[in-house]
Amino acid sequence: MLQSDIAKIMSLFSLTLVSTLFLVGSVGGKPNGLTLWLIHRDSPDSPFFQSSLTCKKEKTGKFVSQSNHRASYLSNVSSNSVHPQIVRPQVDIQSFSYIVKVGIGTFKATPTYKEYYLEMDTGSTLSWMQCEGCTRCFKQTPGPFPKNSSKSFRPILCEDGLCRPKICDGKYCSYSVRYLDGSYTYGILAKETFCFNSNTSKIEKVESLIFGCGKKNNIRFLDQNTNKVAGIIGLGWGQFSFVTQIHSVSDGRFSYCFPVINQYTRRPRQRIPMTYLRFGADIPQKRGLSSTTLKRIENQSQYHLDLRGISLNRRKLNIDAAVFALRRTGHRGGCIIDNSGTIYTRIIKPAYVILRRELEKHFSRFSNLRRFRGNSQLGVNFCYERQKPEGFENLPSITFHFKGLNADLVVQSEGCFEVVDKYHSPNNREYFCLAMAPSDVNSVIGAHQQTNQRFIYDMKNNRLFFHPEVCSKNA
User: Fold this and answer.
1) What pLDDT does residue 228 have?
2) What pLDDT, in 10s, does the model give residues 203-248?
3) Do residues 174 and 186 lie in contact, with contact meaning Cβ atoms separated by under 8 Å?
4) Which residues are in the Peptidase A1 domain (predicted)?
C-alpha cells in the first residue's frame, strides 16, 4: 500500500473519531431535577456548525495526542480541593467533549444575563471563565465577562472561611490553573448567578455559584479567530463542583448516554442523534443496572474505578489484576473514567499487549484480512484492510471487568473499533482500527468506549451505575 494511501485512510479515521457535542441549555426538569440538551458540533443546530468541518480538517490527528496528554494529566494531577494548584492538559479543538451554554450575571438589559459557552469537564472541580479586565486574554466571542457591570457578582475575600489555605490576590481569594504544555489561567474566586432556560420559558437560576474569574489566561480554545468558548464548567469531585453546588437539584447525581457517532450517522440527510445531560430526579429510573465503586483518591477531582480484568468476545484474558492497581508512588496505575479529553480508551501497557496479541489470534482466522500499521503519529496502529465491506459485523466486543457483582462494561464493536468503508477510502477498500491505545501511565475509559451505555454518577453514595442503552432514543 502506498504511504499516501495510508495517510489518507488515517486522515479519514481521524475525521470519523471526533465526537464533540455541545450542551446548549435546559430543556426541562422535575422540581428536583435538571435536564440539559446536547447537540453534536456537526449538527445544523450547533453554534459552531459553519466552521466545524474546517476546524476538524485543520486539526486532523490531534485526538490521539490529546488523549495522551489527558492520560498523563490524570495520573499527575495534584489535590483539587478548595483553592488548588490545578493541573490540566492542553486545551484545543480535541480537548473537550461537551460545551454548556449558560446565562451568567445580572444586568440592566433583556435578557438580564450574558450568555457564554463553557467546556464541560468531569475531571475538574472548579468552574472558571475569562473576565473583563484580564491582563492576558485569549480571543473569544462574545468578549470576556463584564464582572463590574453585574449586580450579582461578589468576589470572595481572603478572610472568608472558603479561602483556606489562603491564596490571595490583594484582598481577594485567588485560584491558579496550569496546563501540562505550560498554558494557564489565573484569577480570583467569586460568586455569581448562573441561569438556564426551561421548557416552560422560565429562567431557572442558580444563585451564588462559586467560580473562577480569569485575569491572566494563556490558553488556546478552538481557532483563535472564531473561538466561542469562555472557560470551564467542572463536574468532578469537590466542594466547588457544579454538581455539588446545585445539590438541591442534583442530589449529588448526574447522568449521560452518548450516542454512537461514526461515518454512518454522519451521512447526508441522516440527522445526528441528540442526547441529554440529566441531574437528580430527571435521571431515568432503570432496573438491573450494573454498578461499581466510584473512588476519590487523595482529594483529586477525577473519578477512579477499580478495574480487575478484560475479556475479548466474553472470554476473559489472562491478565494479572495487579497490573491495573493504583501505585501510590508517583500516582501511577489505576483506572479513571473520563469523557472530557480522552476520546480513546488508554490501557496500561502490559494489559494492552495481551489484548492486542489475542486480537491478532482472533483476526488470523479470517482469510480476507490484511494487516497494515496505520500511522504511528496518530497512535492508531492496530489496523486491518479487508476486501469485502462488512462495517462493524464480525468485529469482536471487549469487556472491562470492574470490582462488584456483574460489574462488567461490555463495549460492542461500534465502541471498540473505527471503520472507513470503501466509499470513503482512497482505493475502494474497507479498513478498521482498534480505537484503543497503550499507556505507560494508567488506564482511562474514554468517551468513544462509553457510547450506547447509560452512566449514572452517584457522588453521595460513591457508586457508578451503568447499563446498555440505545442512546440515540431520547437519551
Assistant:
1) 83
2) 778 899 999 999 999 887 655 667 888 988 889 999 999 999 999 8
3) yes
4) 98-467
The pLDDT of residue 35: 75
Q: Which of 56-60, 169-173, 245-249, 439-443 has the lowest mean pLDDT?
A: 56-60
What is d(CA 409, CA 400) in angstroms, rounded to the nearest whole number?
A: 5
CA–CA separation, 41 and 135 (whole Å): 31
Whole-angstrom Cα distance, residue 169 to residue 85? Answer: 14
Q: Which run of H or of E encompasses 466?
A: strand 463-468
393-414: average pLDDT: 94
Average pLDDT of every residue of the chain: 78
**Pairing label, strands 128-130, 203-218:** parallel
Residue 249 is predicted with a pLDDT of: 87
DSSP structure class, residue 39: E
Query: In CATH terms, are 19-257 and 287-468 the same topology?
Result: yes
Kindly report the number of other CB atoms within 10 A of residue 191's CB atom. Answer: 16
pLDDT at 241: 93
- For domain 287-468, the CATH class is mainly beta
Residue appearing with cell numbers 462488584: 404
Q: Note whether 453 and 466 are within 8 A (CB).
A: yes
The most confident of 61-75, 210-224, 344-358, by mean pLDDT: 344-358
Helix (H) or strand (E) holding 383: strand 383-386
Alpha helices by DSSP H, 312-412: 349-363
Annotate 180-238 with three-state secondary structure: CCCCEEEEEEEEEEEEEECCCCCEEEEEEEEEEEEEEEECCCCCCCCCCEEEEEECCCC
> Could you state, in order of their start, the residue ranges of all structural domains in the chain?
19-257, 287-468
Torsion angle (degrees, nearest 10) of CA 159, 160, 162, 165: 0
49-58 vs 3-17: helix crossing angle, rounded to 10: 140
The band of 80, judged by pLDDT with boundaries at 50, 70 and 90, is very low
- Rounded to 5 degrees, what are φ and ψ at 456? -125, 120
Query: Which one has a higher pLDDT value, 58 or 230?
Result: 230
Total Cβ atoms within 10 A of residue 377: 12
Q: Give me the residue label for grid cell 501505585.
A: 327
Element (DSSP H or E) covering residue 15: helix 3-17
Superfamily the domain 19-257 falls into: Acid Proteases (2.40.70.10)
